[in-house]
Amino acid sequence: MFVLTALVYPVVxxxxxxxxxxxxxxxxxxxxxxxLLVTVGAATLIAVSQLTTYASPxxxxxxxxxxxxxxxxxxxxxxxVANLARRWRxxxxxxxxxxxxxVLALAPVLFAGRxxxxxxxxxxxxxxxxxxxxxxxxxxxxYSHLDxxxxxxxxxxxxxxxxxxxGADTLFGGSAxxxxxxxxxxxxxxxxxxxxxxxxxxxxxARRMGLRGVWAGLAALTATVSALVYGFELVGSxxxxxxxxxxxTLGALVVLHRRWLGGSPAAAIPFALVAAxxxxxxxxxxxxxxxAPVAILAAVALGNALAARRAARGPFRPAxxxxxxxxxxxxxxxxxxxxxxxxVVLFISALPTWIDLSGSLQxxxxxxxxxxxxxxxxxxxxxxxxxxxxxxxxxxxxxGRALExxxxxxxxxxxxxxxxxxxxxxxxxxxxxxxxxxxxxxWLGANAYSTxxxxxxxxxxxxxxxxxxxxxxxxxxxxxxxxxxxARVAWASLAGALALGVLASDAMQYHSSNLAPTARYEExxxxxxxxxxxxxxxxTDFDEYAMYELRDLDVGGVDFIYPPVALARVATGHGAAVNxxxxxxxxxxxxxxxxxRRNPIASRPPSAYxxxxxxxxxxxxxxxxxxxxxxxxxQLSGTSPVRCPLVxxxxxxxxxxxxxxxxxxxxALVLVSVRGAHHxxxxxxxxxxxxxKGAGRLWSTFAVPYPGVxxxxxxxxxxxxxxxxxxxxHLGSIGGQLGGNSVNPDAIGPLTVRLSRAHxxxxxxxxxASLAAGDGGWAYLDRLFLAPAGVAGRGVLRRVxxxxxxxxxxxxxxxxxxxxxxxxx
Length: 825
Fold this sequence. Notes:
Elements: H1 2-27, H2 34-54, H3 62-76, H4 78-86, H5 92-105, H6 107-112, H7 125-139, H8 151-160, H9 167-178, H10 183-197, H11 199-208, H12 213-224, H13 227-234, H14 238-255, H15 257-260, H16 269-282, H17 287-312, H18 321-349, H19 351-355, H20 357-369, H21 401-426, H22 430-449, H23 452-479, H24 485-511, H25 518-531, E1 537-539, H26 546-549, E2 555-557, E3 593-597, E4 609-614, E5 618-623, E6 632-635, H27 644-657, E7 660-665, E8 670-672, E9 684-685, E10 690-691, E11 696-703, E12 708-718, E13 722-726, E14 729-734, E15 747-755, E16 759-766, E17 779-788, E18 797-801, E19 813-819
Parallel strand pairs: 1-2, 1-3
Antiparallel strand pairs: 3-5, 4-5, 6-19, 7-18, 7-19, 8-17, 9-10, 10-17, 11-16, 12-15, 12-17, 13-14, 13-16
Helix pairs in contact: 1-2, 1-3, 1-10, 2-3, 2-9, 2-11, 2-14, 2-16, 3-9, 5-10, 5-12, 7-8, 7-9, 9-10, 10-14, 11-12, 11-14, 12-23, 12-24, 13-24, 14-16, 14-17, 14-22, 14-23, 16-18, 17-18, 17-22, 21-23, 21-24, 22-23, 23-24
């Protein structure tokens, strides 16, 4: 699966985009340079996927429609393909740069060597995009059959049935479905690929600034993976990452205006497709990025018209008014035809957006005015525009020496950007300079009138352009290198500083990435195949990615943003721990299945459910046929003997109803105090547990009540592996285990060991950091405990008639239920 999603999928995606780009190039007159074929092709495929999914019956054919467009492009433009293949040696760096950008963007996954995605738990919006992409390709924009009683249906309805932009999702889903690649593992490669495509237009802009060859490639690379953009890619901001190459391509087409603006009307097709793709990806919020290049092109067209008129009136042209009027009319007519074709293509290519424009505007307005900061702890800094941010996350402020170095890199980039801006004016790159100025104006406007969440997005989309302008400063110093060796040292040092600042920042974010637990999600996928169609299913673990993995089970999560309607009144908040005992038994009757995490500490579901499957991470409980809801479900501590007055009170309810008392036994757990254990002083308490900062060893003694095989469990969030040993015997290593909930960590394990009835020594050892992906990720230990081996689910049930209630007194139970007599023994 790793080879398919990380290596094969991007190659197939590249072929699809190049083929689509060749088709558009052929239709528009063949003026597109090779560096724009991929982004224009991606824009074309977004338009196609939007139209096929809007016509719901055609949605399942979307992957084949994308393939047909690509095949058509290669067939019609094979001559251009052959010509490009012959010249690849001269422009090898134009292929190497996007490949290198892809490797950098996907580095956490590639160097982990397994299918996963990065910065897990940083932004769970990616779970919605996986779910949405799957739904749109399978069902299109037909929401009539959604089950709005449970979380999965509510999520899709709340997002995609309210004009939420889906351009990135339809391209993502359609291309991944072509290979039958699981979307959860194709998600990060898709983001990395779309980021890599931005190097094409970025290199074209760098060449217009005067950079050549490898230097233009290095400028494009550092601009594309600048620290803020890299951070957004790691957290899976699929809309912004897909919009970025569209913005850069619009700028590149502005720079290339002489090739197409005065040509045939069909020459407007690439610009219109790219603008439409941006609108499909970001919705109406993309308008400012379209209006900026349109304003430049309109000014250029007007200037051309005035120049043509002056030429027609010049000394070498016919002086009669009729000839001048004909020239004016031809110029105006050509411009109107070009604009008309562009407007038609733009309208058709983003048809779903325009049909519900009011809804798209409302979504944009809601995003622009929301007071919710998303995953930001504080507003981002304007200095992050310059590409360097030497810290583990773009959301946090660097400290100490890292802050000092960050400031140095920012000052260098600022000086280079000033030189670059002057350089653009000196070389008379007025169209490029004007477009860059308008894009900066867009960012300033958003910064002045929008909230911190929108500001962060516009800051990220503007950062590559500022870094490119800084590389324009390198080009300016290069031009002065003929003045002597000192100037050559200056431009080499400036280029090195710009590249080092960006790459060092990316390396720190790479090192701190939290990677999704592959094995756990593969187990969830197996459950989806095993129990498909047998839902609705109650999911008690906080993990919204489960909605995609269990997409055929109609999942409801009590602690999700959208909890099941029937259980919403007992939901304790997004991400809060789910207490199964607090869920009303009568409301649970609508759930044939309950999926829980395998955790000896957690209480088992009510007696109406029986454990039917258990894996390494999850348990599946099925409701017995015709099992009635309990009259009373009394939650107990599980650690202290139940008192007779309580049992008697429950029995009195059961006696009148002819019911049975059902009690869930607690397993004999051995708790090991984490905070009371010996550990390095650098390991300090946090809200998640003991924060294991750096290398070290924790150890504590414990005793088991009887000899036998025991299971050692950890509870926490652990990326870098830790070694677990008992009495010096190495039991195994645990790493890459994150639970999906940063506030309520899950149990991890078990590791089995045979123990005698005596005191034993348990130790947890964390080695020093390495260059491995995610080695600087989360490291929190909340609990340590042991349970008897073979405990399938906490609470072996004991059933007694109500009049035999005394037999339950003095024992430890998780809960006692009063169950009507129709329950089967």
